[in-house]
Design a protein that fits this description.
By secondary structure, the chain is mainly beta. It is about 10% helix and about 40% strand. The longest helix is centred in the last third of the chain and has 49 residues. It is rod-shaped.
Amino acid sequence: MRNIHLGRKLAHRGILLHFAILFCFWKVVYAQLRYSIPEELNHGAFVGNIAKDLGLDISKLADRRFRIISATKQQLLQVNQKTGVLFVNQNIDREKLCDRNSNCFINLKTVVENPLEMHYVELEITDINDNSPRFPDKEKRLEIAESTLPGARFPLEGARDPDVGINSLRFYQLSKNEYFELDVQDRSEDNKIPILILQKPLDRERSPEHNLLLTAFDGGNPPRSDSINITVSVVDINDNPPVFDQQVYKVTLQENVPTDTFVIKINASDLDDGPNGEVMYAFGSSFRTEVRELFSLDVNTGEIKVKGKIDFEEKQVYEIDVEASDRGQVPMTVHCSVVVQIQDVNDNTPEIEVTSWSSLISEDANPGTVIALISVTDRDAGVNGQFSCEVNENIPFELKSSFRENLYSLVTKEQLDREFASQYNITITAKDFGRPSLSAYKTITVKVSDINDNSPSFTQDPYTFYVLENSAPGASIFSVSAFDLDQNENARVSYYVKAGEVLGKPVSSLLSINSDNGNVYAIRSFDFEELKNFKFQVLAKDSGVPSLSSNVTVNVFILDQNDNAPVILSPLSKDGSAEAVETIPRNVKAGYLVTKVRAHDADIGYNAWLSFSLQQATDPTLFGLERNTGAIRTLRPLTETDASEHKLIIVVKDNGNYSLSTTATIRITTVENTEAFAFSDFKSNTKQQEGNNLTFYLIITLGSISSLFVVSIITVISIQCHRPRDYISTKYFRDTNYAEVSGNGSLCHSYQYRAAEKHFMFVAPSVNIGSASGVGSNRNTLVLSENGMKASGEVSDVEMPACTC
């Protein structure tokens, strides 16, 4: 025993580092180490310093998560993360681990990270002589007829030793006697059958019983042994043993065959007559219990059939010991071997194991980044144990095999984009080459983490908004919105108004923006008459690091409201009174132009369309007022009974939704003297001449504008023929500035058209020739219809764009 312990200690101290091979694959380094230790070492026994043998920095082992992964579920070995020493963690029993295999190895994988390195360690477990040979029984009884001739052989039940190599069963030793000698039949390394050979005839009368001691020895140092007592009883009966047709029967059987499947039929014959020649079959006493559960033997026919489930992965060869005995009073027994070779069928699916799996990967990870290490095994043999491994299609991942056939690395094969796919369910498929083929599946989920790689995008570019003038300060007038395809902080958008000026003032004095939601607020009211449109830029900036931003231009158009009442331009009083005075001769005829009321409205569009009405007159039958021009004319000649002074109150009103108006008071006096007549005639002639000149200019102006109008109509018709209706009505018309004709006779921003069912109305600017002209300076309306030009007409609400002269 002391020598055994000494041997263990020497073996422990004599651990050999056989070889270390270094392989480089891209960024991952693979290496292989091999150690050898004896079995049954104590917990904590030193195996080897892996870190030192691999040349790793021991001080960084913990930070790099240095660890080992065993191919077995038991943690037989462990590694010290501080020193890199591999040591025994649990008792290692080679016989339990590898049965009777002569080569016993434990495969370990070592993994370190940052950068990722993977190494393979192969640990050989050597056998020590910790098991003695064992006979199934301690005593054996034989009955041998005295007529048995010398040379007769009597097989015995052999001993079993679970050790291997030199420590396994080596030889038998029989106690000294004069009748028997020992022969050993080697059927296999672990199956040595002792056979007693009769040296000379037995004499029952002289010695009816012989006691023998059979001892089995192994080859250990020191050797271990076990003994069995053999008692030989001499009888005088049956003298011919059965004889098998073959000493060794061989048969091939597929695994997973159903029960009662025929395996083989053995046959033995006996030369004796009667019961001494009848043969019975039985399993030998050395037959193992596990095999008895798998096979059955017909005692009379010698047929062997399948009894249980045959599994190639459990055992590939079964050696069955069968004995044949006659039915004599003292049966004679002989033995044969039936060797059953098990053929593999494809009954095991590949097994997939995922290690070092990273469930989260950044979208900026480079192609070739390792996600997981995958090992695949198949318990079948030959082509049934060969397999292929792949991942599902249309994903940016692929498998790369290593120098070991069953190891793969799952890596990225292209750049990831979280905005395209934030999570991948990767299905790993292992498919063997058997027929039919068997497959295994393993699904792992990998989430893609976000980086700030997307700038905010505005929903429109540019923005166009319409704001009513006179809006309340602090009111939300419009809103901009931007979205960011990133996630969390990288997608949180803030809004800012970029520095700029409007009418020489900073944009910040007009507007403010809510940085969280993009709502734009008016700091002060807008006045259309002061500012009709402006533009500025909004900056959208995310909260990523570094931050990304984008700009958008916002066009703001101020919409006019009817906030200006008409202003009377003429006639005006000369002495500062509220009344204007006009003088006419007595002898005027009907239709005589007394004067023309001119007015101006600072608004545009409907809000600036002015109409004139006579609110009050001394004699309503004498004077009339033209609604659109404001011209005051006589309705009839004056008579002697008419008063010499008349008072008219004129109301000028715009066309806004909430109409605003103003009044003008005109006092008309009549004169009868010659000077008055002369002055009146001179005034009439002057007005007539000015009117003729004005008419001439007006005709030229209207002709030019009419030509432009016809060109515009042709253009609109062409657009309508080539564009959908909704395009013309919404895009073309809506974006056009509408007409404005100032009442002071000056042309405004544009002209305004209104489409009627059968005619168009053109609002043209009035031409201010002079205050003494007989033609007023108010708005002139030209209507084109099927019949030509008219003064006015019913118009629709469709406004058409026009050119600005």
